[in-house]
Amino acid sequence: MCLSVQGETFYVNKELVCKRSDFFRAMFSSSWRESCSPGAEVNISGVPPTHMRTLLHFLYTNRLVLEEEPLTEQICFELMMCSAYLGVLNFEETLALRMKKKILTFDNLVFMWKKTKACGFLSAAEVCENYLIQNFSAYIEHEGFFHCPRELLKIALYKGEVECGTEELFAALRNWGRIQIAKRQGNLQITPEQIEMFIFDLLPPATLFNQATKQFVLSW
User: Within the chain, where are the H helices?
Assistant: First the structure.
């Protein structure tokens, strides 16, 4: 089978690509049979040739080999979009692990999590969440922690796997809560009760972790 991608030609095994790509499987269903004739050239739009080579290599070998190095945020999202368009099985999960290893940092964690979640790349968003959990003790010392979205922080705490001392954790949460409340109400005086309720809402319900930490907050 011959694919035409922005002027470049790719010869592929139809049976193999249909097996591992929802796009090709649908393309060669009964409604697209005219494209299956011997020698027919199938035009693929919306996917740059460099990304097509990466995706085809993955379809054939199940290995991620990038045409463009190093991996950047832009290339990462472009590849995710292209793989979603072509319905390449397991590509997002594999790329997300490479993303975690190569480009995910405390500085771009929130951006990457928000964008992957907004685009529907749930496996990649989960990788961001796990990155936060695994590095929680260090992250609360980073300035980016104070810009961490409530939802992301809540996910990390609900999983209950953060490795952090109780005093260290709640000192950080108290400062985080104060900043979040200040963003909402400006320079008005912030009471301890406001911070307390703000933090309580982050904690997982009906767990020993929650009961112990609530008592700690109440003892401030």
Answer: 14-20, 22-27, 49-61, 73-86, 91-102, 109-118, 122-134, 136-139, 150-159, 166-185, 192-200, 208-218
